[in-house]
Amino acid sequence: MKIIVDRNACIGAASCVAIAMKTFELDMDGKAEVIHVTDKIQTADESSGKATDQNDLRDTIIEAARSCPTNAIQVIEDDGTPIV
After folding, report:
1. CA 46, CA 59: separation in Å to the nearest integer?
2. Which pLDDT does position 47 carry in this prediction?
3. Confidence at 27, pLDDT banded by 50, 70, 90
4. CA 59 vs CA 20, 55, 82: distances in Å
5. Closest-CA residue to 6 (of 52, 64, 60, 73)
6. Which CATH architecture has domain 2-76?
7. What is the 3-state composition of the chain as percent helix, strand, coil, each rounded to the nearest 5?
8. Closest CA to 15 of 61, 49, 55, 51
9. Where does the pLDDT of residue 76 fall: very low under 50, low under 70, confident under 90, or very high at 90 and above?
10. Are strands 73-76 and 2-5 parallel, antiparallel or unpaired?
11. On the CB side of 70, how many CA atoms lie within 13 Å of its CA?
């Protein structure tokens, strides 16, 4: 899964940060950026339904992207299929 933030579209509302704080943060310009995503992002089915210490769950990342008021975040499958 790939996560792309369009800095020109981002207004710094921080809804993504509020939902997925292990994945997003605001940079010095007040724009969202991806801070950490390891190769393996778990789904709720693959774990106890809780995020790992390093990653938010896949569904949480997708929810965070959908929460963006300017649709500045894209989430794309490894095969190139857009999720958000």
Report:
1. 12
2. 46
3. very high
4. 10, 11, 14
5. 73
6. 2-Layer Sandwich (3.30)
7. 20, 20, 60
8. 61
9. very high
10. antiparallel
11. 13
pLDDT at site 56? 82
User: 26, exposed or middle or buried, with CB in 10 Å at 0-12, 13-18, 19+?
Assistant: middle
Domain boundaries, the chain: 2-76
Report the DSSP beta bridge partners of residue 15: none
Give the type of residue at 7. R
pTM: predicted TM-score of the whole model, two decimal places: 0.80
C-alpha distances in Å from residue 20, one per residue of 35, 43, 79: 11, 14, 23
**74-to-27, 48, 53, 55 alpha-carbon distances in Å:** 18, 26, 23, 17
